[in-house]
Write a structure and sequence with these properties.
The protein is 44% helix and 17% strand. It has 357 residues and is of the alpha/beta class. The structure holds nicotinamide-adenine-dinucleotide.
């Protein structure tokens, strides 16, 4: 990534630090502080090269600005990437996270971070030893714990709203739903959908995870991950990886609705229009998966009780319904309406006030 690439980025600040002890590179991309401190997760990953790592931080940070604005949070967007040679463990990991935490602290509250791919609440505890600007520490340390229960609960609202728009009812009983990815979010979502009476199918590249679900619920069917996209269902819920919806894959889909938690489901923005042309209702990912940030920050930094958190999570359904209605009215793709609404929201001040930790 050269200076030309950086010049094209519309964010505010990119902090780069080389951690000599571990030879890790740290990128903190602060995309926007317009609505408040920039909030975004910290991911630890091995990247093919440092260009990829920096690009990941820049790209994901702008998505966080849109997600946080659309969820009407008084915060901006950011993302941090710790690009490592090997995934560190033990004292090496603690050392890296402690030095990273000091870097976060030096940003004077401009950046607040939480868990993301490759990091956990235990990692947030380590970072929380040196800075207050972290959330989703473990419950024992006064944090909200992992954000994924919030993401899964928000996804249930998102799925109901999507079904209601397409089929006239958000009732899950008898609706065929395929969940792709049975990790932190997908695994929890499957249980919620099952409790609500959905006719479930599950798929994961990790056979043990599929076997575990199917063993516990004999009415849930396993689908080979190679054939997931072609599986007929009312709703397909991608909860694994990004770029699942592309020029190559959209023609293969046999669902009427896509609503999942995975980030960056569209390989390119034009895929939103491809889905619309295929008469598939697409719930924009960052609108549907905002539950984690609502839950984590809501408990820790807005000091909401469970009812207030639940009311905010239910708001995801209202946001999505507005997106669907506007998209239909204007004859445009839902992802474009979500982007438009996020941009409008960015210009409005939020009524919420972020408290200190
Ligand atoms: P996770 O790593 O816990 O689980 C991902 C699961 O997907 C794993 O079981 C993995 O084996 C499976 N998987 C990977 N590739 C697959 C493939 N090609 N086909 C089928 N299964 C595959 O991750 P998570 O925390 O559950 O997050 C899932 C997605 O949701 C990610 O895209 C993440 O960025 C997004 N997301 C998560 C949260 C959260 O609160 N955890 C919040 C917002 C968005």
């Amino acid at each position: 990534m050269g200076f030309d690439d950086l010049a094209r980025w519309d964010g505010e600040e990119l902090v780069i630090r080389h951690d000599r002890t571990t030879d890790a590179w740290i990128y903190i991309a602060i995309h926007s502080t317009h609505r408040g401190p920039a909030v975004g997760g910290t991911r630890i990953r091995r990247y093919p090269d440092l260009d990829d790592a920096a690009q990941d931080a820049l790209r994901l940070s702008s998505g966080m600005t849109a997600k946080n604005a659309l969820a009407d949070m008084p915060i901006g967007g950011a993302k941090a990437v710790l690009a490592v040679r090997e995934i560190p463990g033990g004292p090496e990991r603690t050392g890296l996270l402690t030095r990273y935490g000091s870097l976060v602290d030096s940003l004077d509250g401009q950046f607040i971070t939480g868990p993301d791919m490759g990091t956990t609440e235990d990692d947030m505890n380590v970072i929380g030893e040196v800075t207050d600007n972290v959330f989703c520490r473990s419950i024992g340390r006064g944090g909200a714990g992992t954000a994924s229960p919030g993401t899964a609960a928000g996804m249930l609202h998102a799925i109901r709203a999507s079904l209601a728009h397409r089929f006239g009812s958000g009732d899950l009983r008898g609706r065929s739903i395929l969940v792709q990815g049975l990790g932190e979010v997908g695994g929890r979502l499957v249980e919620l959908l099952h409790d609500a009476g959905a006719d479930l199918m599950v798929t994961d590249v990790d056979a043990a995870r599929v076997a575990d679900v199917v063993r516990r619920h004999d009415d849930i069917r396993a689908v080979d991950s190679a054939h997931a996209l072609e599986t007929a269902c009312d709703l397909f819920s991608p909860c694994a990886i990004g770029s699942v919806l592309s020029k190559e894959t959209i023609g293969r889909l046999r669902c009427q609705v896509v609503c999942g938690a995975a980030n960056n489901q569209l390989a390119e923005p034009e895929d939103g229009e491809r889905l619309r042309a295929a008469d598939i209702l697409y719930a924009p990912d960052y609108a549907a998966n905002a539950g984690g940030i609502i839950y984590g920050l809501g408990l820790e930094r807005f000091h909401w009780d469970a009812d207030q958190v639940n009311a905010r999570l239910a708001g995801i359904a209202d946001t999505l319904t507005r997106i669907f209605v506007e998209a239909e009215r204007d004859g445009v793709a839902t992802n474009l309406v979500a982007d438009r609404m996020a941009a409008e929201s960015l210009l409005r001040p939020s009524e919420l006030v972020l408290a200190a930790r």
